[in-house]
Design a protein that fits this description.
- About 30% of the residues lie in helices and about 25% in strands.
- It is an alpha/beta fold and about 475 residues long.
- The radius of gyration is 24 Å and the shape is globular.
- About 0% of the residues have low confidence.
């Protein structure tokens, strides 16, 4: 039996007779994970849209959570969503395209190029198509081109294309490429590394709640200097300088739709060790993904219901009761997280938030006076801290109408004195994300410990998170980078 799955928005989008593989509606893939228990299929996502938080986006996101090999990945979707994100690939791609045309007897540049799984119907462009597919592994890539100064090929636009937009002839070519591709083994690329020791630290001097203050970064620089490592703060204007450094530590709030993701992506392209890496950003940013990942791997989380529309509200009320906590999937710093006490409040909030996202996450309310956070770096505990709830509030951060945030207190606990269960669950949860730096938030109740979320960009402030382990926190961070540089 085929181990490939084709995902489509509607079964009418794809001719089942054209492939031996299983064709599934995207909504069924999202709603019925039990269909795939015990199997690790390879998934080709042919949804009509891959825009952020659409159904197509969530299919690839949850495929990764389920351990399924998926194309395109969320990273590819994000990269192809904006010219500013795929701009770093254009010089190499345009060079390859220009050389391919110049080397042929026919020097006509097609204004539109379609690449199916790295294959193209124009034999002149075969190398270009393979290079493009190496950069962006997507089933269908559309390239709009033009001549620059009468000679050089220029890429005006690079994007995915829905299968429903293909002509009959293009559709036949797509099915042929699909057949050829699924006969071959899925391969991945390897990153480069560099042996030098100069680290860039990305920060925002105007951020209200930065993960690390400038004062803290100066403290780290003093520690790193003793280890023969230079640390230089950079800002979002310094993307063009990134290749001058050997590693990148992002110390401003991350988001996959702003410059922090572009910096992380560029660092990976340059073969630089980076915290936070783009894969961790994608995975940690979205609470829907985290919930399914934790649940599927036996990590305890609060009782949860995924809300995709009004029809899920009654189920959430029945299964979770009130009060409940409703979250926007990509919320951070307690924003986009609301406690509701009645059906009316739930209905109103869902109606408002579902205008901006296709899915919401609802969880049982677990009242506590503090949250645990375990800092994890490279699979090892880095710090343990308790964050108290803000005064007269149920979260550790209270965002007030005047725009200023009110935070609760904290208590840092040494690794030797922290409850072993807290460290254990923190390490197990972080190991599912990657090998970088994570802050695992945990609630403790009479029923045990529950993972609330995993932060890819946890706070590390001198005098707070490092209060127990002292400078060893910064030594370990420096060593993490150095080890990955071969030092």
């Amino acid at each position: 039996m085929s181990n490939w799955i084709i995902l489509v928005d509607s079964l009418r989008d794809f001719d089942n007779a054209a492939t031996p593989h299983k064709v599934i509606a995207a909504k069924d893939y999202l709603a019925r994970p039990q269909l795939f228990q015990g199997s690790r299929p390879k998934v080709i996502n042919l949804s009509r849209s891959f825009a952020y938080q659409t159904r197509g986006y969530y299919c690839s996101l949850l495929a990764e959570a389920r351990g399924h090999r998926v194309m395109p990945s969320v990273e590819t979707m994000v990269d192809l969503g904006s010219r500013s994100l795929y701009a770093q690939a254009l010089p190499e791609l345009e060079d390859a395209l220009t050389k391919a045309i110049a080397a042929s007897e026919d020097t006509t540049l097609p204004p539109r190029i379609l690449v199916f799984f790295g294959a193209v119907d124009d034999r002149r462009l075969e190398r270009f198509a393979k290079l493009l597919f190496d950069w962006y592994r997507a089933p269908i890539l559309e390239v709009a081109t033009e001549r620059e100064n009468g000679s050089r090929a220029q890429i005006k636009r690079l994007s995915t294309l829905p299968i429903t937009k293909l002509s009959p002839g293009e559709l036949r070519a797509f099915h042929h490429a699909l057949h050829e591709h699924t006969r071959r083994e899925w391969r991945s690329t390897k990153a480069r590394t560099s042996p030098r020791y100069s680290f860039a630290t990305l920060y925002d001097p105007n951020e209200e709640l930065p993960p690390s203050s400038f004062k803290t970064l100066k403290h780290w620089a003093r520690i790193a200097e003793k280890l023969n490592v230079e640390v230089e703060p950079i800002t979002k204007r310094d993307l063009g300088r990134l290749a001058e450094f050997d590693a990148l530590f992002i110390r401003e709030t991350t988001s996959i739709d702003n410059h922090t993701y572009r910096f992380a992506r560029r660092a990976v392209q340059e073969g630089m060790p980076v915290i936070d890496d783009p894969f961790s950003m994608i995975r940690c940013t979205n609470k829907v993904f985290l919930n399914e990942l934790m649940t599927g791997n036996g990590i305890p989380v609060p009782p949860t219901v995924i809300i995709s529309g009004p029809g899920d509200l009654a189920r959430a009320a029945d299964e979770l009761g009130f009060p409940m906590v409703v979250k926007v999937p990509d919320s951070s710093f307690s924003r986009g997280v609301r406690k509701v006490d009645t059906n009316g409040e739930l209905d109103a909030l869902a109606k408002e938030w579902l205008k901006e996202t296709d899915l919401l996450i609802a969880q049982s309310f677990m009242p506590t006076s503090f949250d645990w956070r375990v800092g994890v770096l490279g699979g090892k505990p880095l710090f343990v801290c308790q964050y108290m709830m803000a005064r007269k509030h149920w979260q550790i951060v209270k965002h007030r109408a005047n725009g200023r945030a009110l935070e609760g207190g904290h208590r840092t606990v040494s690794l030797g004195e922290a409850p072993p269960q807290v460290i254990d669950i923190g390490l197990r949860a972080a190991s599912l994300i990657g090998d970088g730096l994570y802050g695992v938030d945990i609630k403790e109740s009479q029923d045990g410990f529950f993972v609330i979320e995993i932060n890819d960009n946890p706070n590390i402030e001198h005098g707070t998170e490092d209060a127990a382990e002292k400078d060893q926190v910064w030594v370990e961070i420096t060593k993490w980078f150095v080890e990955r540089l071969g030092g």
